[in-house]
Amino acid sequence: MSAKEIVLNAVTALFVNFDPEAAKELLTEDYIQHNPAVPTGPAPIIGFLPQLKEMGLKAEIHRVIAEDDLVVLHVTYDNAQAFGAEKMVAFDIFRVEGDKVAEHWDNLQPYVAASETASGNSMVDGTTEITDLDKTAENKAMIEAFIADILMGGAPDKITDYVSTETYIQHNPGVDNGLEGLGAAIKAMAESGMQMTYAKTHFVIAEGNFVFTASEGALGDTPTAFYDLFRIEDGKIVEHWDVIAEIPAEMAHDNGKF
To answer: Is residue 251 part of a domain?
Structure first.
């Protein structure tokens, strides 16, 4: 069974069927949790299932990206008040060990509909098809260079080396499409004292034309986790989704956000 299949089976057991027995068989005994609000181990998340079922939680998976033992899901959760809002968008990262899920990281943010975003795109719509599997390594290397040069400020003038000047579809709710929209948003954030700073990237997970990254840094003075998904076409970034969340000072475990 592939890592994708193992993770999808576990997520179905947890958040579709709310089946504690099935979930117990799909999580390792020493399951490591990085969600700041959930204690580590399989028992806390399994014990939470009756409450999630009662509140009518619904999970919709939009994208599944996998590399080796790591699987990324792009998900919306409805009736998700226990997660922070009625509807939340998330990136979930799972690490598979053998035939079970051994570790979980995530970022969640209240969902913004297309009618309320700067671009007219929702936070989850857009391309879903994985293509160009033969370019996985090349695309991953390009995004790693993009992080160093652009997100971490090594050579910001090189942005057109990475982002398409013809097509750049944006799903961050506060940023318009195109390089102009990105530039305007960055300027506005800097002027308001909410500059976005990337300090360290913990994950770069690639499959074909999609590359996912998970980084820590700051939004203004607030410690922040940035989860980004990029779609690449002909060697350039043409589409971007993200989920941004504060890194709390106190967590329900000692595992840290990353």
So the answer is: no
